Protein 1
Amino acid sequence: MFRRMSSNTCWLCKIFRAEENGISSKLSLEEVLQWSQSFEKLVTSKYGPMIYKAYLKTEHSNENIEFWLACEAYKKITSQRKRISVAKKLFTSYIQPQAPNKINIDSPARKAIIRNIQEPTQSCFDEAQKIIYMHMERDSYPRFLESKFYQKLKHSLQTNGNNSVVN
């Protein structure tokens, strides 16, 4: 089904290799259609974040979803020692001025994180996470819904009679 796709859509081929990416044969048309209802439904669904991340790679903005997902995991950390370690990794990867995956947040949010990084709280990245969520929801999410990738995914599930893409 996906043999002759351009290099721009090769990510789609990779997604549908169940063994490599952990997508079972249960990716349903119902789930994929729910993604168009709201950005929240996309990022909180089982496979949505991974497929959205793959799409963002084509836009060279996958650092946004990676940061957002990392913040979700960070908030669940209960050990202060582990929280400090992960907070520093988030800071060096996404927040500091020369970060390799620097995210686009405003100066007050960045300065607040810098002030709190020595003794990070469970919520010290919340403001930055909200900003990134809004960027994705307003900018890349509408493009994702209109993209060939999402449209082809929907179409492939519809033509398979609501069966999975992966058999």
Note: The radius of gyration is 18 Å.
Protein 2
Amino acid sequence: MGEPTAFSADQIEDFKEAFGLFDRVGDSQVAYNQVADIMRALGQNPTNGEVKKLLGDPSADDMANKRMNFDAFLPLLAKQDAVPKGTYDDYVEGLRVFDKEGNGTVLGAELRIVLGTMGEKMKEDEIDALMQGQEDDNGCVNYEAFVKHIMSV
């Protein structure tokens, strides 16, 4: 992991505003189980496992019941922001492995299996939403267009 990022005052103000939108109780705090969603709303893409690690590996009960304020959240966001992100080329290269014909496409069915079984496994409805409109008439997916689609979401 890299050095935690130093955010500008404007960024911190924007983060604080977004953080406040997740405060459902009105005590200027959020539940641990909301931290991943807040980070994603702020442009990060942590896995649930990464967030649990940042939070000190809390129990399921703590995830639901423990709360944190913005001052405790900001250093976690900075740590997550310092994590190197995958690039467009990284993702295309990863999918190229499944391009058996060498024509820039992968079988949609195979991609669905990979999304549902490798890494942070996706649920079927999440895969369906992600894959919507991506398969051609032959059930193939142009993986360069697919990566562009995912990175723009």
Note: The CA atoms of residues 116 and 126 lie 9 Å apart.
Protein 3
Amino acid sequence: MLAHPLYRNPIQLPRALCRSRSIAVESGQSEIGEGRLFLEKHPSLPIKKLRRSLLLEFMGFIPSVLYALPAIAAPMFEMKEPEVIRTLKLPDGVRVQEVVEGEGPEARDGDLVEVNYVCRRSNGYFVHSTVDQFSGESMPVVIPLDDNQIIKGLKEILIGMKVGGKRRGLIPPSVGYINENLKPIPDEFGPRRSLLSHAKEPLIFEVQLLKVL
């Protein structure tokens, strides 16, 4: 006798249900009456009292598969950090990593530069960026490389960079936002408040030099 198409799979059905089905077929009853026959044969076995493992197995959920194949349960995506060309530690505690070495004009003290940046806390949590995280649209900022207008740590990261280059730097609070008017600072109240709330902790800036004006 050929099995019903519904049961042609590697999942084993509960023995009680399989037994009730064979009884129903042998007695000439229709498949519609199989469930009724099962309940009549086992009136004292409500569904809610079925063993949890048996019920899960019947539903096709096999927990052992998740342990054997964790990639099925929670696929992991590998995230690779960009290779660092060189790392430099400055006397005031700023750590600079050269990620991409540009090929354009070099930024010098007193220059006016246009940059994109991402600011994060030292634990990696996002604080602010000139690039929208969802659309990818950027709103670069123009910053003078002047101690009175830019946080000193970022100035040190930018000086010596060439247009097209990218650097990452860890800036201690002593050379960070010691003054609320120092750039870069968001114009919007929310992002501005968020950034300044972390002014007394190290911040990571990932910056790309777009132009030397």
Note: The longest strand covers residues 112-121.
Protein 4
Amino acid sequence: MAEEKEKNISALHKKITDAFQLFDYDSNKTVNIREIGTIMYSLGCFPSQADIREFTAKVGEDFSGVVHLDKFLPAMTKVLLENRFPPIPRSKLFQAFKVLDKDQKGYLKPEELTKYMMEKAEPFTQEEMDEMLTAHTHQKENVIHYEKLIDKLTSDQDM
């Protein structure tokens, strides 16, 4: 039993370290503090911006603008073991998009989604919106089919 737990922790550490190293551009076991949210998302966590700020305050306490792997690894391991930032269920995402899609067309125009995402709740930056729209806007129709977007966002949840 203890051996299996150790294997699971070891595998978790490898997964976290691998995600961290993708953003360790100088190969010195540090990442820019701005990358922490992206790393957390890549590990299947979905924290709010406030959660990310709180987490980075804990792991980046030297105010250098970087986070060291030796501080990140135990903190992120704890987050994952406690399942602290689970994804939003597909059904809730779909309901939210249906509320935004007042005519129930099954899609939103890029400018509609941009308005909602940059003005409500935890606003996205223009850079984040540009990346999302580039990745998810149907090129010929110039719309975002939100069911396809939700499928992409939730494809890893059942693993």
Note: Residues 97 and 103 are 11 Å apart (CA to CA).
